[in-house]
Each structure stands twice: as C-alpha cells, then as structure tokens.
Amino acid sequence: MQLTGLTLFLSYLFTVIDDEQLVRDVESRIPSLPIAYWSKHKNAVQKKAACAKYPSIFELEFNNIYWQTLRSSNGTFQLFGAYYDIRKRSRIGPAVRILGMIDRIEPKVKTFCQLWFDGQKEPFIVKTFEYKYIWFNKWGNYKQGIYQPYLIACQIPKPFRGLVPASVSLVEKQCDTATNNLRVLYNRPLDDKKKGFAVCVKGLDFLYDDLSVRLVEWIELLGILGADKIFFYELQVHPNISKVLRYYEEQDRVHVTPLTLPGGQPNVPGFQHLFLSKKTTHKRQNELIPYNDCLYKNMYKYDFIALLDIDEVIMPKLDEDRTWHDLMERVVEKGMKLKNDTYPSYNVRNVYFFDQDQHEHDWNKDVPKYMHMLQHVQRAKNYTKPNQYVKCFHNPERVLTLHNHFPIACLGGACHSFPISTDDAQLQHYRADCVRTLKKSCEEFKENQVRDTTIWKYKDELVQRTRRTLDTLGFFRPSSAVGGMGRGRDSLYKR
C-alpha cells in the first residue's frame, strides 16, 4: 500500500533518532567536541567534584561554530583543536597541544590544562607549559587586541604517560568549571604504517570564482604525482567547486573541513571575502590555523606533508622521477650525506607560469583548451630567489609549527630546510601576475620567458583522468560523440 504524504511526514516525525548515530553525526561536524566521551560518562563525571567538574557540552561557549572560548582576566582565547603528541624528538615528552588564537601578544596570564582521562571522575590538572607563537612580530599585526595564532602545550604527567586523554579544557583557575572542552585527537594507524604524501590546502575563498575545472585538473595531477590524500579547508566557495569537492570526498581522495574565522572577524559570505582581500595580514595569520590543524591531524599517518595552493604544483624535473616518491627517495639520500640525518623540511624553488590575458597565446592543439596547466607551458626564465616563496615537503616527525612557506619551529633544534635543486624539481606557480611584494622584479620575469613542457610527461594520463571526471560531473555540453569521450566532449558548459 502506498503511503500518503501525510503518513510519510508523521512517520518521519515520530522516528526516534539513534543516539549513537546522532553522536557520530555531531562528531563528524565538530571534530573538536568530545560528545562521544560526554555521552558515555555524563552521569558519572558531572557529579559534584572536589575540584573542576566535567563541563556539560551544553554549557560550553562556542564561537563561530568551530571555536571554543576561554575568557581570561587578560585576554580571550579561541580554541580550534587539541592533539596528542608523543613524537620522539619532543623535548617535553608526551603532551597535548592546543591550537587556537589569543587576542594578546606574549600572553602573560597563567592558565591550567584540565586533562580528562577515560574512567577518571576528576581531571588531572597541570600548569600550561608554554604559549608557542606561530608568527613573527616583524610580519605585522603585532598588536594587543588582534587575534594571534598560538600552539599551547600541556605536558602529560608521569603517572598518565601511555594514556591518551579523552579531552582537555583550558582554564585560568585550577578548579574552574571550564567553558571549553576539546576532544584530544590521536589519528594513528592501527598498524603504524604511514602513507607517503598528504597535501594541505588553506581555507578556500572562492565564492565568486568558478575554478571547478581547474581544480579537477589540479587534483588529478596531484593524484598522478603520488598525493595519497588532499585535505581542504573551506570558507566560502562557488557551487561548482562544492560539487567537485563532494565528488572526490565520495572517492575518499580528499577531505573537506568547514572553517570560519574566530572572534569578531566576519563570516558573512561576500563580506568575509572583502575582509580577507583587504586585510592581508589578518588573512595570513588566520591561514596558520588550518595549516597546523592539518599537520597535527595527520602527523602519524604520512611521511611527508606539503602545504600547497590550488594554483601551484611541485613538479619533478627528471624523466626517471615519475612521482614525488621517486623524487624524495633521491633527495632524502642527498640530505643524509650532508648531515647524516633527515631534515625537518625539503624546499622547492618557485617559478611563475604566467596566465596570458584572454589566452593571447597559441593553443596546444593536442590538449583540450580547458586544461589550464597543460596549456600554459611558458614560464619565467628565472626562479624567485632561494628561500623566497618556496614550498616544502615537511617531515611531520620533525616540525612543531608550520607557516605557508617554511616551518616556524621544529622539534629537537633549529628548522634547517634542505634546498631541492632546480635540476630535480620546481614549484610551478600558475598566476596572472606576481605576488605584490615582487612588483619590481615582475616585469623582468614576464619579459624573459622560456618554454617548459615538463608537465607534458603526464599529458595523456592527465587529459584522460580530467575528461572522465568532468564527464561524470556533467560539466560537458551534450554531444553525439561515441562513448562521450571524443573531441566533441571538449566543449564545456558556460556555468
């Protein structure tokens, strides 16, 4: 018997949602919320305690969805994530590291970490070990009242070493009932086997720019090069970009984390884009949160982590280096000969592949016009200077905090970075213009260009992969071409 619309509605209305399913759903949306632990232990841990009652998840102070707040007597903390760190080179031993922003420079306020372990009715409380600044004052915005990025360390006490805390709260007074409670993330493979390469992409801010086709080409190229997974953070994006990201998420090739800006910074679509485009130093400071969150969520899972924008690719130069694995096998060996140890990072020089206005260049006839990188094979003859605008393969066993271009702090000593020779690899950067700080030398870059078809060693596979994905996504015009893969399929919809 067919159900009427009213019957279906009533059936839906009175369906009891399974608690475990609800917990899993909330946890997937807010990874930092320890809802599973709270749901399991709420009756025990919320009884009257001698000190520091476990905070109810309904009494936590959230800010802009994903952030949790501590309002201290000297500054406000916006906390994004907490991570269990037992890396061997860490001088402080096992620790929980909390990533967030504080509206103070050189915060003076004393705080405490309430560490909640499974089965414990009260927390173990330790004094905060340090506030690690993920910025340099010479870069600007070194002012009180502006949210600054920090990594906060809480040492695990000796009696609990070997146990992973379920959650952590940051408080000003030891016995305060906290207004924040972060699930401690420990994403370690059961077999302890790492994959090769993860790529982290800062918060995507493409509300008005439909870069979906270029994004497909970029994701497919990184897959060919050996990226095991790409971790995106999403601020505001065009609907077609969302469509692409959802497609690759279903294939488990990318992971997308929604992102907001903390505190009083704007999150309204459009206004946020305007804010980030005009307040570039604020933008750079905010970017350090997704970069470091990506590092700490994946430090036990991958040999190398690269921070890339969607307009740049680390390109192996030699024919025998088909993948990043091939490249890094040789590069790491070169580095070992110099210092008999691995480096925290291995940096690749930047070179510009300029976009020609309105495609005022000859089209490469055997490449579809929508293949942006394959079509653009003219680059600046000269690279940007060593250590300027580079990108790195980071060794997650060695780096403590990351910036867009280099590690800021490292475990076990200084952050030495091994320079990969331009004979071995280059950072191919596809832009219409240079970054603002290179305006003086940009004209020289544009006037002196050479043809560089290194990318064409992947041409056939990249065209095939990209075309197949675009066809699956329905981005082509209807065509009578046999099998849907003929030249007639090279005409894209105007979206």
From TrEMBL:
<keyword id="KW-0472">Membrane</keyword>
<keyword id="KW-0812">Transmembrane</keyword>
<keyword id="KW-1133">Transmembrane helix</keyword>
<dbReference type="InterPro" id="IPR008166">
    <property type="entry name" value="Glyco_transf_92"/>
</dbReference>
<keyword id="KW-0328">Glycosyltransferase</keyword>
<dbReference type="Pfam" id="PF01697">
    <property type="entry name" value="Glyco_transf_92"/>
</dbReference>
<keyword id="KW-0808">Transferase</keyword>
<protein>
    <recommendedName>
        <fullName>Glycosyltransferase family 92 protein</fullName>
        <ecNumber>2.4.1.-</ecNumber>
    </recommendedName>
</protein>
<feature type="signal peptide">
    <location>
        <begin position="1"/>
        <end position="19"/>
    </location>
</feature>
<comment type="similarity">
    <text>Belongs to the glycosyltransferase 92 family.</text>
</comment>
<keyword id="KW-0732">Signal</keyword>
